[in-house]
Amino acid sequence: MSEQTLGHDQVLEQAALWHAAGHGVALATVIETWGSAPRPVGSQLAIRDDSTFVGSVSGGCIEGDVVTRALDTLETGKPEVLEYGVSDAKAWEVGLACGGRIRVYIEPVKA
Questions:
Q1: What is the pTM (predicted TM-score) of this model?
Q2: Cα dist. 26→14, 18, 54, 72, 98 in Å?
């Protein structure tokens, strides 16, 4: 369930508020793009342990998969790098058919 798309500083602020309130929170950040990518490097998505999220890493086309993987990261406590691209069948499944590639770093927010 998406709350809204916020600016970079607002995403970080919301993540901090959720964390301070006792929620598990993961942060997803675009670390690399190539070709046609929907969001620039540095774009972020904060994901709460109940699947609520704010921000955007892809303009919507891969957010569902990123949220699912972020919830996994909250359980394992281990960061992960995800890659989606036109040659990747998973990219087509989740909707990244824009002709580019995007790499997203997901990490749990810790104190």
A1: 0.82
A2: 11, 10, 11, 10, 26
Q: How many CA atoms lie within 13 A of 110 on its CB side?
A: 10
Q: What is the pLDDT along the chain (111 residues), one digit of tens a residue?
A: 344 455 667 999 999 999 999 999 999 999 999 877 778 899 999 999 999 999 999 877 788 999 999 999 999 999 999 998 765 555 555 555 556 788 999 999 987
What distance in Å separates the CA atoms of residue 18 and residue 25, rounded to the nearest whole number?
7
Distance, C-alpha 13 to centroid of its chain: 15
- H-helix or E-strand containing 15? helix 8-20
Burial of 46 (0-12, 13-18, 19+ CB in 10 A): buried
Order of strands across the sheet that contains 53-55: 2-4, 53-55, 44-48, 25-34, 101-108, 80-85
